[in-house]
Amino acid sequence: MPEGFKFYDKVAKKFGGYHTPSNKTREYPNGDPEEVFRDKIIGFSGKNKIALDIGCADGRFTLLLSPYFKQVVGTDLSIEMLNSAKKYQLDQKIDNVSFRKEDGRKTSFNDSYFDVVYARRGPTFYKEFYRLLKPGGYFAEITVGEKDCLKVKKVFGRGQGFGKRNQSTLKTHKKELKALGFSITFAKEYFYNEYYKSYKDLDTFLQGVPIFADFDSQKDANNLKKYTQQSTSDKGILLERHRFVIIAEK
């Protein structure tokens, strides 16, 4: 298993899925990218269509979309996340979803099998996604931009993509998709703010996300205290987020 998926297994064991109970608020100056992503997928869904969720994690988003499709398949490499997903599915009594371990770089599905493939901050193996989609099918992606949490990463001197993402991630992804033959039908960046109510809330949040895959509450306490002192306002402790959404048609 790639090193990154050990992190997701650890999070699923500790929190029961891809979720940390941290208290925060959000401000969206130009819309909530998660809502845009969801609504775009629903817009080209159908009761006769089959969708694939690449990197489904604990499956909650996969299950959320299940009423809009004939079938949804959720895939991941983290066994613990898949176990959490199956528990959520059992609790919700949803029978048109299946979860399975698959490597997104080369899945076991047939060519042109899916009407929709989407990645919600999951891996983006575009060549494989193109193979899996039917002609006229859609790929949808929401992922982290190069400026996400940049200030806290600078304080820590490390972090997801730190020092490696000097170019626009959105432009890079669009270029890669077009080179494979996809037609871009929607592409937009979103910047928004998260405010954590306390040091403990931010600490808990960082334990469950890959901003710092090696985050340690004790070892990183000085860095986190320094960032908290710099970024606290009457709204809470600020994290500046960066996302983009892309919709592409085969």
The CATH homologous superfamily is called Vaccinia Virus protein VP39
Give the structural class: alpha/beta
The number of domains: 1
CATH structural fold name:
Rossmann fold
Q: Assign the CATH class.
A: Alpha Beta
Reported CATH architecture:
3-Layer(aba) Sandwich
Alpha-carbon distance between the termini?
A: 30 Å
DSSP helix fraction: 25-40%
- Largest sheet data: 9 strands, mixed
Q: Kindly state the mean pLDDT as a whole number?
A: 91
* C-alpha-based Rg, rounded: 18 Å
Q: From N to C, what is the helix and strand string? A: HEHEHEHEEHEHHEHHEE
Give the DSSP E fraction (strand runs of 2 or more residues). Answer: 25-35%
Compute the number of strand runs.
Answer: 9
Topology of helices and strands:
Blueprint: H1 3-15, E1 24-27, H2 33-43, E2 46-54, H3 60-65, E3 69-76, H4 79-92, E4 97-101, E5 114-120, H5 126-132, E6 133-144, H6 150-156, H7 169-180, E7 183-196, H8 199-207, H9 221-231, E8 232-233, E9 236-249
Parallel strand pairs: 2-3, 2-5, 3-4, 5-6
Antiparallel strand pairs: 1-7, 6-9, 7-9, 8-9
Helix pairs in contact: 1-4, 6-9
